[in-house]
Specification:
Layout (H helix, E strand, L loop, with lengths): L23 E4 L1 H9 L10 H8 L5 E6 L2 H9 L3 H11 L5 E5 L12 H13 L4 E4 L10 H9 L3 E7 L14 H13 L4 E6 L6 H14 L4 E5 L6 H10 L4 E4 L13 H8 L10 H15 L18 H5 L3 H13 L6 H14 L9 H15 L11 H8 L11 H7 L22 H8 L6 H9 L1 H11 L14 H15 L18 E7 L2 E7 L21 E3 L24 E4 L4 E6 L6 E2 L4 E7 L2 E6 L4 E6 L6 E2 L4 E5 L1
Parallel strand pairs: 1-2, 1-8, 2-3, 3-4, 4-5, 5-6, 6-7, 7-8
Antiparallel strand pairs: 9-10, 11-12, 12-19, 13-15, 13-18, 14-17, 15-16, 17-19
Helix pairs in contact: 2-11, 5-6, 5-19, 7-8, 8-9, 13-15, 14-15, 16-17, 18-19, 19-20
The chain binds cobalt (II) ion.
Length: 656
């Protein structure tokens, strides 16, 4: 590092003398940046204005896809994820594209069958992907086998990740010590990794551990070493510098407006810090400033409402204490808020390491962060003093069966036994590569979706996301109306909103008297509290959006089911979309124990059921919960359909 060039030769632009060993940079703004800060809501149209300028910087690669983008785009943005790749490729012609691939989980939350995995990687490569940054949440590289075969066959770059996690406050101790990481790197090299990435999703790597780890890996393997370290804990800029001193080859950063908080350190300070050294990036700082100007003024205002500005501090100290990735932390808080249980957050923090340990001390990264997080919340909310793990999610059952792979240490045997009681694939867990027990999926998906999937990319989208994927294809081909909630907001709308806020702050907002329409019988009264001031607000839905009615007695009950007279008057209704008429006959209700989306009904009207039979599968926080019959009887009504969003307490079915 001390190898300095003459200070007089230093220039901001790229005419300054080239460094001997320039650090390579991958930009994450267009994927992990907006995923971390703006709930992955970045739209393609907002990437285009800076795309060509970013292509000119000299990045090693630009991350454009993967992680949550595939999910969020079709679900919340009404955008075809495949199309984004093709569009950006028209503007970014020189710089390779990188994607985050969840190995056999692809861009979803479970292991998919081999036929789907081959097809996905093949199509991603065809659509323009160059670098496949591949990780497995359990660091079980048997889950790499299929995708790596196809990455190599497609002639693309295979970057193997080691998910970085800890058993102690610092690197070392029992499971996740230096030897563990060296062994994993050697495994990756023997699989043909073109580069190896230390994937520090929670920003846990301390600067001196980064130094020791990079040094050790550089000695152990030949492949270039890449560091991905989130800013969350505040350590990453220091860790970057120490990793650079230890000889790391590639570092991940974001453009300033997409940087810090739970995202990544910014690029610009690193460029300045290395200026004139033997690791100088060689980047033109003025060009970077020009990109920032556009992002700051023309793009980011459209997203600032998504930024979690509830805290002034940009560093999350909890991540150092609880080792939870930033995204997981905000998920937990959201989930608790939706269940009116935000006061339980401390219990969640206490329960989380216990659940993680029970589940084999697994790293916390998608999907294991969701699996551990949601199970933790379930335990805190539903467990009783004499029964732990009262409501086990489908994904925890799959993990116990071995469907995600081998855990770092064995799963708690008692929990495993309980989770696998009556498990459809069998009660004895598997030890083979998980995908070996999975039946091919593509043909089945094709038979289900039929002609709605016009091409292979549509079919893959549907196969990975059957419920939301089908909805998206209906929007895409004009078979269903596109809801306003998935449409983009414009700068004009942002400006209008800002004006109103400005006026309100200046006390200039006056009430306008208009002739109010008459109140309908659907009007509902809400109590609104602003700084301890109370307002009673009547809300009357316009148009013909149907409203789900929940019997009064049932709404506040948290249990999965209660017996209640179903004919109660419609009351504090829940603003969930699209519900058929609610059955009003007598019977026992199955209530949603949490807000979520209906995946499917296992039983239909007229079916006889016994207490404990699974009636409906409810997706909450991306985890599937099988809800079972509270009593014997016959299904009288199923009040929702696949894809419907339901509120906590919604009556999902009536058993009479
Ligand atoms: Co990340």
């Amino acid at each position: 590092m001390s190898d300095q060039v003459k200070m007089t030769a230093l220039k901001y632009d790229s005419t300054r003398p080239k460094a001997k060993n320039p650090i390579k940079i991958m930009d994450l703004s267009l994927r992990d940046g907006h995923q971390s800060l703006f709930a992955t809501r970045g739209r393609t149209e907002d990437m285009i204005p800076v795309a060509e300028m970013m292509d000119d910087i000299g990045f090693w690669a630009i991350e454009t896809w993967g992680g949550a983008t595939f999910d969020t785009m079709h679900r919340f943005l009404n955008e075809d994820p495949w199309e984004r790749l093709r569009t950006l490729k028209r503007y970014i012609k020189k710089t390779p594209f990188s994607m985050l691939l969840r190995a056999q989980n692809l861009v979803g939350y479970r292991n998919y069958a081999d036929d789907l995995a081959f097809a996905f990687v093949d199509r991603a490569a065809e659509n323009g992907m160059d670098v496949f940054r591949t990780f497995d949440a359990l660091n079980d590289y048997r889950n790499f086998e299929t995708v790596v075969k196809q990455i190599k066959k497609s002639g693309k770059h295979f970057q193997g990740c080691i998910c970085y996690t800890l058993t102690e406050p610092r690197l070392g101790g029992e499971v996740y010590n230096l030897d563990y990481y060296i062994k994993k790197a050697k495994d990756l090299e023997s699989m043909g990794a073109d580069s190896i990435c230390i994937k520090d999703m929670a920003g846990l790597i301390a600067p001196y551990d980064a130094y020791a780890l990079v040094k050790a890996l550089k000695e152990a393997v030949k492949a270039p070493i890449h560091l991905h370290s989130h800013f969350t804990s505040g350590m990453s800029p220091m860790s970057h510098l120490k990793a650079i001193e230890a000889g790391v080859d590639i570092i991940d950063t974001c453009m300033t407006p997409y940087a810090y908080r739970t995202s990544h350190a910014a690029l610009e300070p690193l460029v300045m810090a290395l200026l004139g050294t033997n690791r100088d990036t060689g980047f033109d700082i003025k060009k970077l400033a020009a990109i920032n100007e556009i992002l700051e003024k023309e793009i980011l205002p459209k997203y600032k409402h998504l930024l979690d500005d509830s805290k002034v501090s940009i560093i999350d100290i909890n991540v150092l204490l609880h080792q939870t990735p930033g995204g997981m932390l905000s998920n937990l808080v959201n989930q608790l808020r939706e269940m009116d249980a935000l006061d339980k957050i401390d219990e969640v923090y206490k329960e989380l390491p216990r659940v993680r340990k029970d589940l084999g001390q697994i790293p916390l990264v998608t999907p294991t962060s969701q699996i551990v997080g949601v199970q933790t919340v379930n335990n805190v909310l539903h467990d009783t003093p004499d029964e732990r793990y009262k409501m086990i999610t489908g994904q925890v059952k799959d993990l116990c069966f071995g469907l995600y792979g081998k855990t770092a240490v064995p799963i708690n045997a008692e929990l495993q036994k309980k989770a696998l009681k009556g498990y459809p694939r069998g009660e004895t867990p598997i030890t083979c590569r998980p995908a070996e027990v999975l039946a091919p999926e593509l043909e089945k998906a094709k038979a289900e979706i039929g002609d709605l999937a016009v091409d292979f990319d549509d079919l893959i989208l549907y196969a990975i996301y059957p419920v939301t994927g089908k909805k998206f294809l209906e929007w895409k081909y004009g078979k269903a109306e596109v809801p306003a909630s998935v449409k983009p907001i414009t700068m004009e709308e942002v400006k209008r909103k800002d004006e109103i806020i400005k006026k309100a702050k200046a006390g200039l907002l006056v009430e306008k008297k208009t002739t109010a329409p008459p109140k309908s019988d659907r009007v509902r009264t809400f109590n609104v509290f602003v700084d301890n001031e109370h307002f009673s607000v009547d809300v009357d839905p316009t148009g013909d959006a149907p409203v789900v009615s929940v019997p009064k007695a049932a709404a506040p009950v948290a249990a999965a089911a209660v017996a209640a007279p179903a004919a109660a008057a419609p009351s504090a209704a829940v603003a969930a979309p699209a519900a058929p008429a609610v059955h009003t006959g007598p019977g026992t209700l199955l209530l949603a124990p949490m807000p979520g989306m209906i995946v499917k009904y296992e039983k239909n009207i007229g079916d006889k059921v016994s207490k404990g039979d699974t009636i409906v599968v409810l997706e909450a926080m991306k985890m599937e919960n099988a809800l079972s019959a509270p009593c014997d009887g016959t299904i009288q009504a199923t009040n929702f359909k696949s894809g419907d969003n339901v509120a906590k307490g919604a009556a999902l079915c009536v058993i009479g």
